[in-house]
Design goal:
290 residues; alpha/beta; Rossmann fold; 5-stranded parallel sheet; two-stranded antiparallel ribbon; 11% strand; globular
């Protein structure tokens, strides 16, 4: 999700068909079978940043190249769950680390190469689209510098208000454009889970100062409100991972997101654990129209 190394990672405190049993033999002389025709697979396109790609959640999909997507991220789990429930799913996952709203519609340059615009696979055949993006449009620009050179409490409130207002406009426009590219699809905007605790701090957030944790928490609250507003503006569904993750922030007993230290084979610093992806997948399955 984040564009820079640890200082900016620290800033981001918010911030997927099996054939059925063989058909019985036709009765003699009928020339017919009792087999039901196989349903058309649901075509699911997943878009988003590293909170969708879930780098280091085992295992990394080698075919994802510089986007370092996990084979166990929430789009993969959603596709598996729907398939097991009787709806075969063909998932196209275009989520990528470092992505922002602009990368939905233009090639993205990421460490290790360039990848096509995420929305390239969308068309009239698409049935479901999830979009998990927006954090990189706000967090890095606002918090990266202050955590390195001062305290985030010194940031003018007008700066965050302007960034959030721009995100609401840009993301609302992007969601409407996605709707035009995939006019038959259900579109869901997926929010971010909570990472900073409601109050205080903990060892997993060292070296962040307590006042910076509090500032980042307030910004996370505002980002969630902005995402919900953008979904409402565009008339698409919203998957509220923020509310669902209450009590599972970085300082919680079962956090959905890692702290400021990368956990090899489990999660990149300040990025989702497997349990967080499982929980978000359940929310998406619940929100998606059967």
């Amino acid at each position: 999700m984040l564009r820079r190394v640890l200082p900016v990672l620290l800033a981001a405190l918010l911030i997927m068909g099996c054939s059925g049993p063989p058909a019985p033999d036709a009765e003699p002389g009928t020339g017919a079978t009792s087999a039901e025709p196989s349903p058309r697979p649901l075509r699911y396109v997943a878009l988003g940043d590293s909170y969708t790609a879930a780098p280091l959640v085992p295992r990394v999909d080698g075919a994802s190249g510089p986007c370092v997507r996990s084979t166990g991220n929430y789009p993969a789990i959603v596709a598996e769950a729907l398939t097991e429930d009787g709806t075969p799913v063909r998932v196209v996952d275009r989520s990528c680390v470092e992505a922002d709203v602009a990368d939905l519609f233009a090639p993205q340059t990421v460490r290790g190469g360039e990848v096509p615009a995420q929305t390239a696979p969308l068309d009239r055949r698409t049935d479901l689209v999830t979009v998990g993006i927006g954090g990189n449009d706000v967090l890095g620009p606002l918090l990266g510098g202050c955590l390195v050179g001062g305290t985030c409490a010194d940031l003018p409130r007008s700066d965050s208000a302007a960034r959030l207002a721009a995100l609401r406009t840009d993301l609302g426009d992007a969601l409407r454009r996605i709707g035009r590219l995939a006019p038959q699809a259900e579109v869901l905007l997926v929010g971010y889970p909570q990472t900073a605790p409601p109050r205080g701090t903990c060892d997993a957030l060292v070296p962040l100062a307590a006042e910076d944790v509090a500032y980042a928490r307030g910004l996370a609250d505002d980002l969630d409100t902005t995402l919900r507003a953008a979904a409402d503006d565009a008339g698409v569904g919203f998957v509220d991972a923020y509310a669902a993750s209450a009590g599972h922030d970085i300082c919680g007993e079962r956090p959905w997101v890692a702290g400021t230290t990368t956990v090899p084979g489990e999660a990149l610093a300040l990025h989702p654990f497997a349990r967080g992806q499982e929980e978000v997948a359940a929310l998406v399955v619940e929100a998606a129209t059967p």
